[in-house]
Every structure is written in structure tokens, then in C-alpha cells.
Write a structure and sequence with these properties.
single chain, alpha/beta, six-stranded mixed β-sheet, 5 helices, 23% strand
């Protein structure tokens, strides 16, 4: 078992690309969150359902079993940005996870390039659950901006390694 766990949600594959790339850099374990009721992946319904759930604070039920976080010293949480906030499935995870005494690193992926608000919300959630955020990174469409994203991911990996 690795000392680092990366927990993430990805609808379109951007966060999945980033999480898998980071896991490869760190030899970390991965946990991809999945919801019981899947979100639409395309069109207006994607924005309508995902955005509504996020803005309204709805916490979708997850079908992914949470790993035992006590087995890890460092946790990375990766989230897409929906309506300026972390995607609703990440909110569900963060409100249930025990980050007590953990070094936590946050990764946010957006289409617009500004994830400051999302990272701030996630930082607050980690603090409320006993963790300490030691680093953050934001990516813009990482699966499409591969070279730039991999450079940032390597930088985050270096921060995580210490």
C-alpha cells in the first residue's frame, strides 16, 4: 500500500487524466468516486443537473466505498469545478471523510481557468474535518492541455514528496 491516496471525481475525463498522471508520478493509490445516479455527460442536461446540484448544495449518494484514510499520511483530492464550486460528489466525500491529522493536497480542474473559489471551499472543508492543506494546484482542461498540465502535475508531485 502506498503512503499517498488520490481521491477524485471526474465526469468528462479531465480530472481522471490529472489524477492518473499524478498517481504515476507518486506511485500513489487511486480512488475514483462514482455516484449511484450518474450525471449526464453531454449537452444542456450535464450543466443543468451538475450545476443545480452543486449550487443547491445537494450531496449525491456515492456508490464508491471509501478507502480507509487512516492507512495514508497524505491525501490528494481532485475535483472538477462546477458553477464555481467543487463538483457535488466531491462535497459528499469531503463532508464524510476523516482528514484528522492528514496532510491534504487539492487539485481542481476547470474549463475557464479560475478555480480559486473552489480551492477555498475545499480548503475550508478539509480544515473542518481535521486536515491541513499543504498544497493546491489548478488545471485548465488538463486532458486537452497535456504538456502544460503535466508540468503542473510534476510540480504538485514535488510539493507532495516534500
Amino acid at each position: 500500500m502506498a503512503e499517498i491516496l488520490i481521491v477524485y471525481y471526474s465526469l468528462e475525463g479531465n480530472v481522471d487524466f490529472a489524477a492518473r498522471s499524478l498517481a504515476k508520478e507518486l506511485d500513489a493509490d487511486l480512488c475514483r468516486l462514482e455516484t449511484v445516479k450518474e450525471y449526464p455527460k453531454k449537452g444542456l442536461l450535464k450543466f443543468l443537473h451538475g450545476g443545480k446540484d452543486t449550487v443547491m448544495g445537494f450531496k449525491p449518494e456515492l456508490k464508491t466505498q471509501f478507502p480507509d484514510l487512516s492507512a495514508y499520511s497524505k491525501i490528494v483530492v481532485g475535483a472538477p469545478v462546477w458553477a464555481g464550486k467543487p463538483a457535488a460528489p466531491i462535497t459528499t466525500f469531503m463532508e464524510e471523510a476523516d482528514f484528522q491529522g492528514k496532510d491534504v493536497y487539492l487539485l481542481a480542474s476547470s474549463a475557464g481557468g479560475n478555480a480559486d473559489k473552489t480551492l477555498s471551499i475545499m480548503t475550508e472543508a478539509v480544515s473542518k474535518r481535521g486536515g491541513s492543506v499543504k498544497g493546491t494546484e489548478q488545471l485548465t482542461n488538463p486532458a486537452r492541455n497535456i504538456e502544460q498540465s503535466l508540468e503542473k502535475i510534476k510540480g504538485l508531485a514535488q510539493t507532495i514528496r516534500g
